[in-house]
């Protein structure tokens, strides 16, 4: 079939030209950044052609695979003037692209190549002169053409003028291509810089926390929008199944839909799921051109494809999260770009794989931390006693470890009833935050019990004897402690006697809400080398009065004096007589933010 034959089904000429589909030519055409919109520079070329050659129609025509469009045009009839484009059935300029030389036709109706072209009846093209418009490599992108609606004998001078203008117009096209190349290079440089900056900060970003959920959230926000429009981070359970999925989208208004998609992934992944494949094989997957239909094929829930379409689903890649040292796949990172963003390439894949390795180390550390912390908390609480239920006294206690530490601490409390019915309460803090401090804390608490149980000595004498036992048994410790006895008074109520070895002062919340600080005497710590004769004090407790013992984690901060923390604690306790002892303890523990040390707390209220 020749170029001038008509496709009977379409009713218009069918042109077969390999030049029109040349990928390099089409890429160069796209790099001009031009389309069927008016461009002042190219409209100027069209006006010059019309004026200098005295023609009613002049076009800067760029020819694509299946259309021609006019960034520069003058004199076209409607509706073509508004559309600024035609299908190739109405194109003479496609032949200039095909033959790569000027095409000059005094009367197009006489030439077999074009006489059936619909441009003749629909656009009134009779006389035509078209000069090639080329890029730097000489590829013909279109034509600068002069058109008349009646036959015309083109003069040599007119054709020379048209050729000169076509050369200048080609130079403008090349500038546009060069500008696009420069902008593309700048974009690539900026993207590369963004990726390098992100990778440089990634270790610090992930290493700043030992909480798994926080690590995953930070990971997502670090990758979006630098690497992708949105992302999914999947972590597995011990059976290798998706346990949790976190999502981040560049558009905050899409956050809820992204979170919903993430929730559905834990139960809605089909057997052909790419995420399952990555989790199973540990092999990355890059899809440069994906569709929502792919989501439908790989999921089991009909809601997921619709969500993917709203979130923007085109190019995507998935890489494994591998545990450091073991190589086991513990998760998957999925990056997704919408149709308006460039597809992922091998460079993006390598970057994502690097992030997967770094994430594996961070998540592995977080899991290890969680396990160690759980063991530490179980061990710590196993060293703390169950509180007795003495007659006439209501007890409550709390122990709260620092949130970001796995060591066992040296804070402790104790309460036990003497054979004569007295209640002995104690609180202390052994220096250090490690297993040795915890072991020493256990020894010290047991010494207090063994030293005090069954004895009626004053509390000062009990602490003096405890000092002697620490020195005599060569227990390597320095510790603070408060030892107190609550004894039923003959006149009603209780009598409190206490002795303080370098510990924060006990507090009394009196009936009516007033708070007293029992700040004297505060004597040296336990475990010092020289013997110390300790002294005690005594005060009555009326029914409803509350004794509060606590460790320094409740009041001490690096950025303020201890006295300020104590004043703040007194303020929080004001009116505490209206709360139960459990409510009072909860108020104190939850009110402390950014704790730097463990908290132990013991409250005893007289009835």
TrEMBL record:
Catalysed reactions, as listed in the record: O-phospho-L-seryl-[protein] + H2O = L-seryl-[protein] + phosphate
Give the signal sequence positions.
none
Q: Which GO terms describe its molecular function?
A: ATP binding; kinase activity; metal ion binding; protein serine/threonine phosphatase activity
Where does the GAF domain lie?
Answer: 37-183, 207-373
List, alphabetically, the Gene3D superfamilies matched: 3.30.450.40, PPM-type phosphatase domain
Q: Print the keywords alphabetically.
A: ATP-binding, Hydrolase, Kinase, Magnesium, Manganese, Metal-binding, Nucleotide-binding, Phosphoprotein, Protein phosphatase, Transferase
InterPro entries annotated for this entry? Answer: Bact_Sigma-Reg, GAF, GAF-like_dom_sf, PPM-type-like_dom_sf, PPM-type_phosphatase-like_dom
| One Pfam family from the record | GAF
Which positions fall inside the PPM-type phosphatase domain?
A: 393-606
Q: What is its EC number?
A: 3.1.3.16
Q: Tell me, what does this protein do in biology?
A: Primarily acts as an independent SigF regulator that is sensitive to the osmosensory signal, mediating the cross talk of PknD with the SigF regulon. Possesses both phosphatase and kinase activities. The kinase domain functions as a classic anti-sigma factor-like kinase to phosphorylate the anti-anti-sigma factor domain at the canonical regulatory site, and the phosphatase domain antagonizes this activity.
Protein name (record): protein-serine/threonine phosphatase
Q: Which organism is it from?
A: Micromonospora siamensis
Q: What is the lineage of its organism?
A: Bacteria, Bacillati, Actinomycetota, Actinomycetes, Micromonosporales
């Amino acid at each position: 079939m020749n170029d001038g034959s008509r496709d009977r089904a379409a009713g218009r000429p069918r042109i077969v030209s390999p030049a029109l589909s040349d990928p390099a030519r089409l890429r160069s055409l796209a790099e001009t950044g031009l389309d069927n919109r008016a461009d002042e520079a190219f409209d100027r070329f069209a006006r010059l052609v019309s004026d200098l050659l005295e023609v009613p129609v002049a076009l800067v025509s760029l020819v694509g695979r299946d259309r021609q469009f006019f960034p520069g045009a003058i004199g076209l009839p409607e509706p073509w003037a508004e559309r600024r484009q035609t299908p190739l059935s109405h194109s003479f300029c496609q032949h200039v692209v095909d033959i790569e030389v000027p095409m000059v036709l005094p009367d197009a109706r006489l030439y077999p190549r074009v006489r059936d072209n619909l441009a003749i009846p629909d656009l009134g093209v009779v006389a035509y002169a078209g000069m090639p418009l080329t890029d730097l490599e000489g590829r013909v992108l279109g034509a600068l053409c002069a058109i008349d609606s009646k036959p015309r004998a083109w003069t040599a001078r007119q054709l020379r003028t048209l050729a000169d203008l076509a050369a200048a117009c080609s130079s403008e096209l090349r500038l546009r291509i060069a500008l696009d190349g420069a902008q593309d290079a700048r974009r690539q440089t900026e993207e590369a810089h963004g990726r390098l900056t992100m990778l440089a900060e990634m270790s610090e970003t992930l290493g700043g926390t030992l909480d798994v959920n926080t690590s995953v959230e930070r990971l997502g926000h670090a990758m979006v929008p630098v690497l992708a429009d949105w992302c999914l981070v999947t972590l597995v359970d011990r059976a290798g199944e998706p346990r949790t999925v976190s999502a981040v989208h560049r558009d905050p208004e899409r956050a809820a839909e992204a979170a919903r998609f993430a929730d559905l992934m834990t139960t809605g992944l089909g057997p052909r799921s790419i995420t399952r494949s990555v989790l199973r094989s540990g092999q990355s997957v890059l899809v440069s051109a994906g569709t929502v239909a792919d989501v439908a094929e790989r999921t089991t829930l009909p809601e997921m494809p619709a969500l993917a379409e709203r979130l923007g689903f085109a190019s995507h890649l998935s890489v494994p999260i591998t545990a450091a040292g073991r190589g086991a796949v513990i998760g998957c990172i999925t990056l997704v770009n919408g149709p308006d963003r460039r597809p992922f390439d091998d460079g993006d894949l390598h970057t994502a794989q690097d992030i997967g390795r770094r994430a594996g180390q961070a998540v592995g550390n977080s899991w290890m931390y969680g396990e160690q912390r759980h063991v530490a908390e179980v061990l710590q609480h196993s060293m703390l006693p169950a509180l007795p239920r003495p007659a006439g006294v209501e007890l409550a206690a709390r122990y709260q470890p620092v949130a970001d530490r796995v060591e066992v601490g040296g804070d402790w409390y104790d309460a036990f009833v003497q054979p004569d019915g007295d209640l002995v309460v104690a609180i202390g803090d052994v220096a250090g935050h490690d297993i040795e401090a915890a072991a020493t804390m256990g020894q010290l608490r047991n010494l207090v019990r063994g030293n005090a149980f069954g004895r009626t000595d004053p509390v000062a004498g009990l602490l003096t004897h405890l000092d002697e036992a620490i020195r005599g048994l060569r227990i390597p410790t320095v510790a603070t402690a408060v030892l107190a006895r609550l004894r039923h008074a003959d006149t009603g109520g209780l009598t409190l006697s206490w002795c303080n070895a370098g510990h924060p002062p006990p507090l009394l919340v009196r009936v009516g809400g007033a708070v007293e600080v029992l700040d004297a005497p505060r004597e040296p710590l336990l475990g010092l080398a020289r013997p110390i004769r300790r002294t005690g004090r005594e005060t009555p407790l009326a029914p409803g009065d509350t004794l509060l013992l606590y460790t320094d984690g409740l009041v001490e901060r690096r950025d303020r004096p201890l006295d300020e923390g104590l004043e703040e604690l007194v303020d929080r306790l004001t009116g505490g007589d209206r709360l139960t002892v459990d409510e009072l303890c909860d108020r104190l523990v939850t009110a402390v933010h950014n704790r730097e040390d463990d908290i132990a707390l013991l409250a005893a209220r007289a009835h």
